[in-house]
Amino acid sequence: MHTAAGFDGSQLLRGALDLVVLGVLERQESYGYEVARHVWAGGLVDVREASVYGTLTRLFRAGLLTARIEPSAGGPHRKYYALSAAGRVYLGQGREQWKALSTAVDDLLTNS
Amino acid sequence: MQTEALRPAAATNFLTAVAAELADLADDDRADLLAPVHQRILELAPAAATREHLEELFGSPARLAEDLRAAAGLPDQPVGSPAAEGPPLGQWLISLARSRPVAPVVAYVASLRPAWWAARWFLLFAFGLAVLSRGGGYRLHTIGFYPQAFSRTDPHLSMLWLLGPVVAIIASIVLGLLGPRLPRAVQPGLVVVNVIAVFALVAWPSWWLGPAFAFYSGLVT
C-alpha cells in the first residue's frame, strides 16, 4: 500500500468491491458491464471492468447471486445477476461491518 | 502506430489470446470469465473494436486474464505453463491434479511449500557434504558434530559449518518466494534442484541408517 509516489488505495477497494457489487445488484438486476457502469457512476472510476466480471463470477459461485440467461442474437447470451436470499443476508452483515469499520477509522484519522 | 481496421478477426484474436492465458483453468471457469468480455466486445461500435482500443479498455490479454483470475478467486497461471495448449501428457496431468479426489492432496502438498523451501537447500548442502566426505567428517546430521566443529583451532572455519546451512536455508526460502518471478531459463534448474533434494530426503537417511542398522543388528560384522 505504501509507494514512493504516495498512498495506494487499491487494497482498500479490493476488500470493498464485493459489497459494492452486491449493493448495485440490490437495487436492480444487472449484467456485467451494466454493473461496472454503476460502480463507475458511483465514483469508483479506478475499478477495472475485469475486476467486476471476476467478482460477479465468484459471488455467483458462492451462492450470493442468482443468474438468468437472456438470449442474444449474436455471440454469448447475456447473463443477468440479482441478489439471492443468502446474498441479501451477506450484504446486510457487510453493511453493518462496513459502517462500524468506517466509523472507527474516521474517528482514528480525525483524532490522530 | 498503425491502427488495425476492425474486422471480426481483431476481436477474435484478442479473445483467443485471453483464452490462451486462461488455458490452465477448467472449461466452465474459463467460459464464465470470458463470456462477459465477449459480450462487451460485441457491444462495442465496430470502429472501436480494434486491438488498440481493446487493450486500452482491458489492458493486454495477459493483464485481463490476470485481473479476471484475481477477482474470481482463481489461482494464478502456473509458472512455466505455456499460454498455448501443452502436450497431451501435461494436459492430462493438469486435469488429474484438478480432479476431485486428487485436488485436496495437491492442495495439501502445495501448502507444505514454505517448509520445503527451508528444508531443501539444507538437505542438498548436508547431503553434498556427506557425499564428499563419504559419510566421514562432514556429518551435519549429527548433533555431536557441532561441538567437534567448534573445537577446531580456526574459529572462522568453525563458523562455516554453522553459517553454511543457515545461508543455504535463507537462500532456498528466497528462491521459493521469488519462484514465479524467476527468469524462465532458471526454472529447469530449480526443478533439478528439487528432484535432487527429494532424492536426498529419501536416500540419505537410508544411506546413513542402513549400514548402522546392518551392523548393530548383526547382519554384517
What would you note in describing this structure?
- Chain A is α+β, with helices and mostly antiparallel strands and 112 residues long.
- Chain A is 61% helix and 16% strand.
- Chain A has 4 helices and 5 strands; from the N terminus they run E-E-H-E-H-H-E-E-H.
- Chain A has helices spanning 10-27, 32-41, 49-61, 85-111, and strands at 2-3, 6-7, 30-31, 65-70, 78-83.
- Chain A has a 3-stranded antiparallel sheet. Chain A has a two-stranded antiparallel ribbon with strand order 1-2.
- In chain A, helix 2 (32-41) packs across helix 3.
- Chain A starts with a strand and ends with a helix.
- The relative contact order of chain A is 0.14.
- The model of chain A has no long low-confidence stretch (mean pLDDT 87).
- Chain B is mainly alpha-helical.
- Helix content of chain B is 68%, strand content 0%.
- The radius of gyration of chain B is 26 Å and the shape is elongated.
- Residues 1-7 of chain B have low confidence and may be disordered.
- Chain A binds chain B through residues 17, 31-33, 48-58, 72, 74-79, and chain B through 32-33, 35-40, 42-43, 57-59, 64, 67-74.
